[in-house]
Design a protein that fits this description.
alpha/beta, 7 helices, Rossmann fold
């Protein structure tokens, strides 16, 4: 029996969490019985010897209202960050398959010594992503064109990668749209797990969260209804295809 994937959520909104799981299953092609879901904002991670991370085929970290660069962090956010750091210690040591989507740039980036700050925010909506020369040859980006549209929405990003990280994708608004550590750890600033329906849901949920002026919500929904980015989901599908068998 192939190992399951662990999908980790940190969203405090039940609606956003449910939609993230819906779109992750729909866009990855994973059946529900191949996924375990952990809501880290509500359920602390136990000691790793009890959690047994080696039982998973890979780890998928979704987006989050939390930011590594936040200056006033709640107890829940601090605990989530500590739990993710413990898990990343193990993942990095074992070069275990990891895909961090949006929030993954901050978590994996900080863990690996990147500079994560507010220099390159992008409001909720679309951006244009271009692969680097290295990215064009990376297996997780197989089948994607050199440039493609993608959904984004973030207050922070990486302004400087550590020397050992591999830069895979960029955009005019955010220089680091995707990077890699070792052979199997990936993080994207854009959202491979997000579809048009999910973007509209998030615009509504996070209209007052500081990603854009709230009076722009309806205009952004109208724009989202005209944009349907299909290429990014290949990142998620490739991740499942490459790591989904027994390793």
């Amino acid at each position: 029996m192939p190992k399951p994937f662990l999908v980790i959520s940190t969203r405090t909104s039940d609606e956003a969490t449910a939609d993230e799981i819906r779109s992750t299953l729909a866009l990855s092609g994973l059946p529900a019985d191949r996924v375990e879901h952990w809501r880290l904002e509500s359920t602390p991670l136990p000691p790793l010897e009890e959690f047994a991370p080696e039982r998973f085929a890979g780890f998928i970290l979704g987006g989050s209202p939390f930011n590594a660069s936040d200056t006033d962090k709640s107890e829940v956010q601090l605990r989530v960050e500590a739990d993710l750091n413990r898990l990343l210690d193990w993942i990095v040591e074992h070069d275990a398959p990891f895909l961090g989507e949006c929030y993954g740039v901050g978590t994996l980036g900080v863990h690996q010594g990147a500079v994560v700050d507010r220099s390159y925010p992008e409001p909720v909506g679309s951006t244009w992503v271009s692969l680097t020369e290295t990215g064009r040859n990376d297996p997780l980006l197989a089948g994607l064109p050199e440039s493609f549209g993608a959904y984004v929405g973030h207050k922070e990003s990486i302004s400087k990668l550590p020397p050992h990280a591999i830069h895979l994708a960029t955009s005019p608004a955010a220089p680091v749209q995707m990077f890699k550590v070792k052979n199997n750890l990936y993080a994207t600033q854009f959202h491979p797990e997000l579809d048009q329906e999910g973007l509209i849901t998030r615009i509504r949920i996070y209209a007052h969260a500081g990603y854009f002026p709230p009076e722009e919500a309806e205009t952004r929904i109208e724009a989202a209804q005209q944009q349907n980015h299909l290429w990014p989901r290949l990142v998620l599908q490739n991740f499942v295809r490459i790591y989904g068998g027994d390793r």
